[in-house]
Design brief:
53% of the residues lie in helices and 0% in strands. The protein is built from four helices and no strands. The model has no long low-confidence stretch (mean pLDDT 88).
Length: 78
């Protein structure tokens, strides 16, 4: 699973979908990350949170961020 994210809302939606795909509840993920449930909800709805928290959440789910210019014609693969 991967995504093109053009906003923090897109990133939040991806995080929520990836968490659900792995069968993890919000409460379980908040506990694993050491975040409050309010912070986790803010992440998943694209609210203003630190990029470090987004990165930690992605790592916990087994993902990473790849940033390329919008105009780039690239293929991202392992």
């Amino acid at each position: 699973m991967w995504t093109n994210a053009y906003s923090v809302e897109d990133v939040g939606e991806f995080l929520k979908d990836a968490r659900k795909e792995k069968g993890i509840t919000q409460a379980q993920m908040a506990k694993k990350l050491g975040f409050s449930p309010v912070t986790l909800s803010a992440l998943e709805t694209g609210k203003n949170v630190s990029s470090q928290k987004i990165e930690l959440y992605l790592q916990m789910l087994g993902y990473r961020i790849v940033i390329v210019p919008k105009s780039a014609k690239v293929k991202v693969s392992e």
